[in-house]
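FOLDING PROBLEM:
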Amino acid sequence: MPWFKDPLHFLDSVQAMARESNSLDILTDDAASAQLFRQARGTRPGSHVDLPWLDVDKAFLVAVNKLPGDDTAIALDYRTDHTDPRVVASDFWTDPRICSWREVTPTFSALVGAFGL
């Protein structure tokens, strides 16, 4: 992700991923934070959420900022596929006034292949 300038902490357990992903709910429930971080709930009637917004009802964080306050994250985005989700990451560097969620790879398996795992 060439736009990343801050170090990341890759979460190493399902419990850590669930704990960090809970923060998405907290931020989305606050209207100002939801707008700043471009997070919404796609499960609300009549709502459609697509990039550069993150649908927090269909996202799971797998990496977060290593340093407090950096506001960086990588998420599995299950809007595209329930078995091989798209990988997205936050971007505050392109426009520091607001977060945009950008595609890293179209599928998780593509990310694993890119890392040679």
About this structure: The radius of gyration is 13 Å. Residues 40 and 55 are 5 Å apart (CA to CA).
